[in-house]
Amino acid sequence: MRILNFLNNKKLGESIDPSHIPTQPSILEHNAESKTNVSDVNVQDFQQVPKILLIDFDETDISLLTSKGLNCTSGTLGTQVEVPKKSRNDEHICLLNYDLPPNLHEFNIILVNLQNVKTIPYDPKEHQHTYVKDKDTFAMRSRYPQTIFDPRPFCGAILASKLSDFITKSSLIIVFSDVKDDVSYDLVRISKNGIETTGESTYNTYSFLSSLRLPYSANVMGKETRVSTDIGADFYKLLDAHNKEAIYSITFQHTTEWNSQQSEQVKRSTFVPLMLTSDDRIIAYADFDPKTSIFVFPEIKRKGEFLVELFQTVLPNIFPDLFPYSTRFAWLKDKKYQLPNEELLSAEKFRFEEDYAKKIEELNKKSHDNYEEYSWLHDLLTKTGDSLVKTVERYFNFLEFTKITNVDEEEPTLKEEDLRVELEKGLLVVEVKGIGGTSTDSDCSQISKIRYRRGKQRKVYDVYGLYIVNHQLNLPPQDRAYPPFTKQQIQDAINDERGLLTTYELFKLFFYIKDGFVTKEAARASLLEYGLVTFTPSNSQLLGSPLEIHYGGTVAILKLENNIISKGIDLIVVEPHNFYRAHIIDIQINGESVNKATNCVVGIKLDSSVSKTSQIWILNS
Fold first, then answer.
1. Does residue 3 have a pLDDT over 60?
2. How far apart are CA 286 and CA 236, in angstroms?
3. For position 332, what pLDDT does the model report?
4. Does residue 604 contact residue 586 with C-beta atoms inside 8 Å?
5. What is the rounded distance in angstroms from the CA atom of residue 147 to the CA atom of residue 84?
6. Which of 260, 278, 409, 436 is least enclosed, having the fewest CB within 10 Å?
7. Which of 478, 505, 532 is the last residue of a domain?
8. Which of 345, 368, 391 lies at the terminal end of a domain, its last residue?
9. Residue 322 gets which letter from DSSP?
10. CA 176: distance to chain centroid?
11. Are residues 551 and 598 in the same domain?
12. Which helix (H) or strand (E) holds 154?
């Protein structure tokens, strides 16, 4: 059917069949031998089957696959074109620039890389028909405000229309996913009478799968992923090796089918999730079918290495008919021909793989449970408002304050302090804020007014004030200003006898307590300090900072005054954002090793590095 007759029966707004769109023969219709093909490369153990089409893959990945003897041909769904638009009347004629072999039906595996998005500038010469046999021809029109003409969704629909023979035989489609975008197209007829719009249609970046089984999806981005444990050991090992570098841009729902016995929709057993997000959304899956099976993966950094392992180790065991070279001597695996010890070793390997899968599942559960138990610590660094107040309240419970009142919950009309903590020697009132920048003078001093009011109510001024801020929320905590208070704000806090503290200091304090550097009792006492609240090692004395450091900080020169250090003990090193232990390996005075030292300048060799600004503490004996 000619495009003219076809479109004469279409009204504006009706969908266009992409299989009927004419394109430049010089650009789009050529012999498959012009592509990158392994038959042109001198490769040992060349495998004629499977015949693989790689769409939009980097040349380095294609070269790696062909070097392994795989029969590969390259193609593309097209390249995005930058179409300049300066005014509302600007428009450009665009031609499709896809590149697919005419013998698609002869291929066994088609791979589509949706992540390889390239853009080229608009060149009018590349968007003119070179050969026109009829009295008119067709093209696309790009209008204001469109600045990028993306041919890939439309060309994907063309690819789908050419797969009718491919999907009727044993075959595979493998996709590296990206976001699902919808793109609208205007088709125009070009004739002696000018340019006339003849139809419009919308396609998405997954239109090449339109005739197959595409699950519901959502554009969601992230990089916290895990591998499903409900897959074979070889597949698990491959995915796990690339999991840390994986990034996803789309998630999928498990497809369903009607179960007549249960009279309800149930999950299809032939749809197998392969990789999941941290909250169990599907980002990679296998959809098995007697004819064409589909594999979808997220962005894999080292695609070439991934595909080599996939084609050499994983897929031949699942689809032996597609990889006859891998199974040519499969009869050797029969028990009749087993080598000595092979059965015993295979059984041991199977037990190990089972134990490994169980262990991974156990560790995944422990990791999930651990996250559920401690995720509130991240809330200290990310939350604002009532959520942040609740998190600080939980933290104070961790510090073992015995009586904490969330004032906003118990006295919602008061609108003054956020938390009230009963102490043995008085009362602590706390103001908690989460802000995008740093605190104003009034933010810092608001707690002074509240402290005064509570003292007046109690008729005794045993009230402590503390302002806690989660500041510069959009920055990683270590990149935030510290202290986020001016010198004047800190001095005013000292004068007014109130404290200033950040939630990041509370976050770090949790680990100082967990690692035994600070006791909860000492932490509670520090919260009653005036000015900038800081935490120091408990039951310890400050030796000072190194006079000199050598050998990358593993040797420090210290001046000891009324303190004794001994070989083999641990010191506590305090850095701006970290406390850690440093073990004394050796002590020298005037170049001579000694076991102990006091009241002198001494050199100490440590198992950890320190800096000249490090504070070095020693536990009280």
1. no
2. 13
3. 66
4. yes
5. 6
6. 260
7. 532
8. 368
9. G
10. 16
11. yes
12. helix 152-161
Confidence check: pLDDT of 523 > 90 = yes
Q: What is the mean pLDDT of the chain?
A: 87
User: Is the pLDDT at 411 greater than 90, yes or no?
Assistant: no
Element (H, E) at 352: helix 342-374
pLDDT digits (tens, 9 = 90+) for 190-240: 887 888 888 888 999 999 998 787 899 999 999 999 999 888 888 999 999
Q: CB of 217 within 8 A of CB of 180?
A: yes
Q: Are 454 and 525 part of one and the same domain?
A: yes
Helices and strands per DSSP (H, E), number in the chain:
15, 35
Please compute the mean of the pLDDT values over residues 158-175 and round it to a whole number: 92
- Specify the residue for token string 């995915």: 239
Where in the sequence is the domain holding 355, given as residue range(s)?
329-368
Nearest to 65 by CA among 325, 309, 318: 309
**Cβ atoms of residues 72 and 59 within 8 Å:** no
Q: How far apart are CA 344 and CA 351, in angstroms?
A: 11
Q: Are residues 422 and 549 in the same domain?
A: no
Q: What is the mean pLDDT of residues 163-192?
A: 91
User: Are 434 and 468 found together in one domain?
Assistant: yes
- The residues, any chain, with a CB within 8 Å of residue 413's CB and separated by 6 or more, are none
Task: Tell me whether residue 308 is in a domain.
Answer: no
Nearest-CA neighbor of 293 among 384, 202, 166, 407?
166
Q: Are 417 and 447 in contact (CB under 8 A)?
A: yes
Helix/strand/coil for 186:
strand
The token pair that represents 409 in the structure block: 């919950």
Regarding whether 518 and 482 lie in a shared domain, the answer is: yes
Residue 400 lies inside a defined structural domain of this protein: yes
Nearest CA among 63, 73, 69 for reference residue 36: 73
Indicate if 437 and 524 belong to the same structural domain: yes
pLDDT tens profile 241-261? 999 999 999 999 999 888 888
Here the CATH number for the domain that contains residue 501 is 3.40.91.30
Q: What is the CATH number of the domain that holds 605?
A: 2.40.30.10
- One-letter amino acid for residue 383 of the chain: K
Say if strands 109-113 and 171-176 run parallel, antiparallel, or are unpaired: parallel
The CA distance from 532 to 541, in Å, is: 21
Q: How far apart are CA 210 and CA 154, in angstroms?
A: 12
Query: On the CB side of 304, how many CA atoms lie within 13 Å of its CA?
Result: 13
Regarding whether 361 and 438 lie in a shared domain, the answer is no
DSSP letters spanning 413-457: TT-S-SEEEEETTEEEEEEEEE-SS---HHHHHHHHHHHHHHHHH
Q: Of 413, 441, 414, 442, nearest to 429 (Cα)?
A: 414
Mean pLDDT of 405-433: 90
Whether residue 166 is contained in a domain is answered as: no
Query: 24 or 417: which carries more pLDDT confidence?
Result: 417
The token duo for 21 is: 């769109």
β partners of residue 169: none
Q: Can you spell out the DSSP letters for 41-77?
A: S--TT-EEEEEEEEES--HHHHHHHHHTTEEEEEEBS
User: Nearest-CA neighbor of 561 among 600, 614, 588?
Assistant: 600
How many domains is the chain partitioned into structurally? 3
Pairing between β-strand 426-434 and β-strand 463-470 as defined by DSSP bridges? parallel
Q: Residue 125 has what pLDDT?
A: 86
| Domain assignment of residue 560, yes or no | yes
437 and 483 co-located in one domain: yes
By three-state DSSP, how is residue 620 classified?
coil
